[in-house]
Write a structure and sequence with these properties.
Shape: globular
CATH superfamily: MFS general substrate transporter like domains
Number of helices: 21
Low-confidence stretches: 408-417
Helix content: over 70%
Strand content: under 5%
CATH class: Mainly Alpha
Order of helices and strands: HHHHHHHHHHHHHHHHHHHHH
CATH architecture: Up-down Bundle
Number of domains: 1
Mean pLDDT: 86
Structural class: mainly alpha
Length: 417
């Protein structure tokens, strides 16, 4: 596959619109993370409370993603995206003008989940323009919109110091409205008749064992990425006593790797197979998080977290290269279901880090658990290889890297003899 073939196959304006939609939505979804030190100081929150506050938007995303996935299947990604962007303005407006207590922000955190649910509309809208062998790169490019978290961590703390943290919510309404206009003008549905799924289709997919495995894997890769994105500002501030702006800058540096390596992960997965790539990535993530668990010097922790986040970002692209190979007719539906699992994993991570910090007095235990979970995902992949070789369609197994390239060449040779 060449970049020329990729450009000819798809629709660049829709891909760009999907990227912007996901980008601004991700910015809004994680806004409580970089503002967490400000909110925590204002309401005198414990580590557990701060972890729960930053985690709730991720739980909300898990709730809304299957709904957005269903709407994408039924009404199309363009219509669903426009409605989703419009609703995203509501919690920002309430946080700016109405919310005045910790409990109120907990409720708004759940409503912010509608922004995280954008995944279930943006990725199918973009990937539907491309053939299966190019969908990993297409979803990687659209999914690189998680770089919107960079905007939140880089600008939100600075704006909070300049104009007050509450006003930041109101200011972030402006880019959401701009992206709504751009999305309206550029996004198009892929040609071809859309097949409306019945409830029986949903039940059939949920009953398949591979659905659960994809949910587990994505809860580790995307859950780890978004969970750390939401919580690292608090970690750097509380563990290393950095200023709120410095904590946001450290978090921005870490997120930079995860965001922009996601399309690299998608492209590599298209080339070597998402399965093969994901095995190596999870092993390396476990090593990075083990290093962070020792709570090294700030510079060392920054390097380990940046490397780990880059690997998790590539892992996100790998999982979504595998998804259309296994479920080519249900990408929109599975994107919502698997995305919900990723959001749930993201919700559990900040909550776990906060609880263990209060229980043990250290952040190390939480990162040690994260390393153990990455090892668990690696073990699951190794154990799944043999049954997947038997149950996946042969061509899909080749593209996923479950069946080695050498066997593919041998099969092709045997077919011609």
């Amino acid at each position: 596959m060449s970049l020329r073939d990729f450009r000819r196959a798809g629709h660049a304006p829709t891909l760009f619109a999907a990227f912007l939609y996901f980008d601004v939505s991700f910015m809004v979804w994680v806004i409580l993370g970089p503002l967490g030190p400000f909110i925590g100081e204002a309401y005198k929150l414990t580590a557990t409370q701060k972890g729960f506050l930053t985690a709730l938007p991720l739980l909300g995303g898990s709730f809304f993603r299957p709904i957005i996935g269903w709407c994408t299947e039924r009404f199309g990604g363009r219509r669903t995206g426009l409605v989703g962007l419009g609703i995203t303005v509501i919690p920002l407006l309430l946080a700016w003008q109405v919310a005045d207590s910790f409990s109120a922000f907990l409720a708004l955190g759940l409503l912010l989940g509608i922004a995280g649910a954008s995944f279930a509309a943006a990725l199918p809208l973009a990937s539907s323009w491309y053939p299966p062998e190019q969908q990993g790169l297409a979803m990687g490019i659209a999914g690189a919109g998680n770089s919107g978290s960079l905007l939140a961590t880089l600008f939100a703390p600075r704006l909070a110091q300049a104009i007050g943290w509450r006003s930041v919510f109101g200011l972030f309404i402006i880019p959401v409205v701009i992206v709504w206009i751009v999305f309206f003008l550029l996004a198009k549905e892929a040609p071809g008749q859309r097949r409306i799924k019945r409830w029986a289709d949903y039940a059939a997919v949920l009953k398949m064992g591979d659905t659960g495995w994809f949910c587990l894997l994505y809860s580790l890769t995307f859950g780890g990425f978004v969970g750390l994105t939401s919580y690292l500002s608090i970690f750097f501030h509380d563990q290393y006593h950095l200023t709120k702006v410095q904590s946001g800058d450290y978090t921005t540096f870490v997120i930079l790797f995860g965001s922009f390596l996601r399309p690299v992960g998608g492209a590599l997965a298209d080339r070597v197979g998402g399965y093969r790539l994901l095995v190596g990535l999870l092993g390396a993530v476990a090593l990075c998080m083990t290093g962070v668990a020792t709570l090294p010097a700030p510079g060392v922790a920054l390097a380990l977290l940046a490397t780990g986040m880059g690997l998790l970002g590539m892992g996100n692209g790998s999982v979504f290269q595998l998804l259309p190979q296994r479920f080519p007719e249900s990408v929109g539906l599975l994107t919502g279901i698997v995305g919900a699992a990723g959001g749930l994993g993201g919700f559990l991570l900040p909550s776990l880090l906060g609880i263990l910090k209060d229980k043990t007095g250290s952040f190390g235990a939480g990162f040690a658990v994260l390393a153990a979970l990455a090892c668990t995902g690696l073990t699951v992949l190794v154990l799944l290889r043999h049954p997947w070789r038997r149950t996946w369609p042969r061509e899909a197994a080749y593209r996923a890297g479950i069946v080695p390239r050498s066997e593919e060449l041998a099969d092709s040779y045997a077919a011609t003899v």
